[in-house]
Amino acid sequence: MVEAGDKRRVVLEVCLIVLVIFLLTVARYFYERTLNRNIYLFNKNVRSDLLSSDFVKQKGPVSDKLSFVTNDLELVENNYVKEVFNLITCVVNLLLCLVMAINANFILTFVFMLFSIISAIAPEIMAKRVMESSRAWSASVGKYTGFMSDYLKHIDLILHYNAMPFFLLKGNKAITETAAAKQKRENTIAMSNLLAGILAYSLSFLPIGIGILFVLDKRLPLSSFIMVQYSSSWIVNSILAINQSMTTINSAKPLLTKLANIKELPQSALSDEMTTIDFKDLQLNDVSFGYQNKTIIQNASLTVNRGDKILLTGRSGQGKSTLLKLMANIIHPNKGTVELVEPDGKAITPQPDYFGEVNQDSNIFHDTLRFNLTLGRNFSDQEIERAIQKAGLTPLMQKIGLDTVIKEDGTNLSGGEKKRIEIARAFLYNRNFLLIDEGTASLDPQTAHEIHELILSSNLTVVEIDHHIPEDLQSKFTRSYKLEDKKLSLIS
Question: What sequence ranges are listed for the domain ABC transmembrane type-1 (predicted)?
Fold first, then answer.
């Protein structure tokens, strides 16, 4: 016959168990919410910081940078952020179990802990191999992303030349290398975990033997031994989980180091102030430039007056593009000075944002025509239309409007339309000093002629690099110079 007290005790214990399970479930829910919140903050803050860091200006393929902000940051999220939270959970479990075990018997718990801690050397033993395999995987992903970028951009050319079989071989090789690198990384992590497991479980049997001897010698009650043994098993499992988390965190360390080395862009680059500059002339005084013991430009002097149209010619590889970068202060001369003289005669150092630019490859965004002109800055429709009219872009605006989205890289625009967008952008931003580096090289002769007529008839100050200027246009330039064998010389 079951007594009423026993029934109450059973009901109480069941309710207590249900309550504990409920509390643990709720705690797990809040744990996951906290984890998700921190992952959200990581994604938001790190990616936002990258937008305004020197990461965007670092040399290297765009595909490598895209690989970093997708695959590599996801790896940091999974192998660092999540594992840090898992590590905290394991440490809390370890401390709770440790309190229970110490309460049963301090000496035997100390013995269990001493042997269990030895297993913690496993992540340190494998740390270098784990980091090396992670770096190799990250590099292989970058190569694969680069291949896919080229493959998707140039698929029509590949098909035109019947080169698909060769690209399939190249692509399959990149895929195989990436998959193999990931497999090696995972196997290295698994080996580290295996080593930690072997150490943890094998060493845990030695304290059990010591505990049995304590019981036989009547130095330890059997109940205390059982409590320490079970608690220590949980401790061993917690230490093993900590070791696994440390191994996984080690795999993210190369990427964390890369993140730590990324610096914020200077405040001047983050300013939204509208830069306009009035000047009388730009002077290069006895400028020389070179790198790695190789001289590219030697003792070059040049004065560009306000409104001048300067033509710069010379064979490829002679340093013409370098000369434009020196003018804009993107790079600095090894010798001599580059000065912008204001109307009052004051000489200042030119800054890159004083200049408009038109290059061979147009900078066109996958956005509206309005955005491609304004770059997000607030201009009135009248200002935009005036710049469009100056650049001869009215037919395009009438055809597609200001708020139609232009396709990626401007594939739905002609070459001339792309150049006119860049020129209209310079007009809109009042960049009255235009640097043109082979800006019309990719255009057909008629379109190139029209663009030149537009530029040469404007009030812009222009320095242009070009090899194929027709004779009727050459006469419209103020002066022509040739850069040859490191020397800059006046032609006409």
Answer: 1-251
Q: How many CB atoms lie within 10 A of CB 64?
A: 19
* Range list of β-strands (E), 278-381: 281-291, 294-305, 309-313, 335-341, 347-348, 356-359
**Residue ranges in 77-163 assigned as alpha helix (H):** 82-104, 106-117, 121-153, 155-160
276: in domain? no
What are the φ and ψ backbone dihedral angles of 237, each rounded to 5 degrees? -65, -40
Cα separations in angstroms, 473 against 78, 391, 464, 491: 60, 18, 13, 15
- Residues comprising the chain, all counted: 492
Residue 268 within a domain? no
Q: For 416-438, what is the mean pLDDT?
A: 85
List the domain range (segments joined by +) for residue 8: 1-47
In this structure, the answer to whether residues 162 and 287 fall within a common structural domain is no
Per residue in 443-482, pLDDT (tens digit) is 778 888 888 888 888 888 889 888 777 777 888 889 988 8
pLDDT band at 492 (very low <50, low <70, confident <90, very high): low
327 phi, psi to nearest 5 deg? -60, -40
Asked if 90 and 241 touch (Cβ cutoff 8 Å), the reply is yes
**Any idea which residue has 């903050």 for tokens?**
41
Amino acid in position 372: N
User: How far is CA 175 from its chain centroid?
Assistant: 22
pLDDT of residue 378 exceeding 80: yes
**Is 429 in contact with 418 (CB distance < 8 Å)?**
no
If one counts the domains in the chain, the total is: 3
Q: Identify the CATH number of the domain in which residue 147 sits.
A: 1.20.1560.10
Residues 75 and 39 in one domain: no
